[in-house]
Amino acid sequence: MEMGLKDKVVLITGASRGIGLATSRAFAREGARVVMAARNGDVLNAAAQALREETGAQVETFSGDLTDEPNCVGLVKFAHAQCGRIDVLVNNASGQLPIGDFLQMTSEQWLTAWTRKLQTYVTMSREVFPIMQGQHGGRIVNVLGAHAARNPAASVLPIGVISAGLVNFIKGLADLGAQHNILVTGVSPSGVDTGPRWAEWQKRRAAAEGKAEGEVADEKVAPYALGRPARPEEIGDVICFMASARASFISGVVLTVDGNITRGCYL
Description:
The protein has one domain (9-192, 230-256): Rossmann fold. 49% of the residues lie in helices and 14% in strands. It has helices at 18-29, 41-55, 69-83, 107-135, 146-150, 157-178, 196-209, 213-221, 232-242; strands at residues 9-13, 33-38, 59-63, 88-91, 138-143, 182-189, 254-257. The protein has a 7-stranded parallel beta sheet, sandwiched between helices. Helix 4 links the parallel strand 4 (88-91) and strand 5 (138-143). The two termini are 28 Å apart.
């Protein structure tokens, strides 16, 4: 299937590992020009070089903490200056969000979580939006946890609340983008086996809920009808599709990619 992504400029945050790296690879294989952004410059540059060698794609890098707003502004300026346009923004960056006892969680932890995820997505979208308006089109794809938004759990309230906010943000921004042919969507995985980060998540969840790590691991896998969590590339490929010419009439929605773990029907 021709995805219509050749020579498109794609800006991906949180791109050095996991879903972000898999997404970068998916776009690079389609012939897009990829701008990868992440905090750790050494890890980012190594990942980018591997992609160049593997795919032959043009890959640019920008290292910085996007919870610091000037870095968001700098990233968008860098991508635009290097490539002349920005066709796709993939909002994926997220610092470690707090989990644990609600009564022990401070206001500072809540505000930090808000900044790490939702506000960073808002800022990045606001910075690329005028560029896409000038181009008369673009795509903004947001990675979020709609499962947590729709299925609240006391130990992960910040994640659920932030994800619910992002669902609302996507719908509202899609309304604004429609008149400029800017399509705004979300892709929502549930569990994704990203290696060490997946293991660390289970460890933190176990501590927050007073359970053994093995017990949490079993609980996380048990609901999956397919018997396993997703692989990063399975999410990256869907993100790539949502930004492609094959998804030209999809906007304002969150596509759940969770192997049928989400219960209930959401219309």
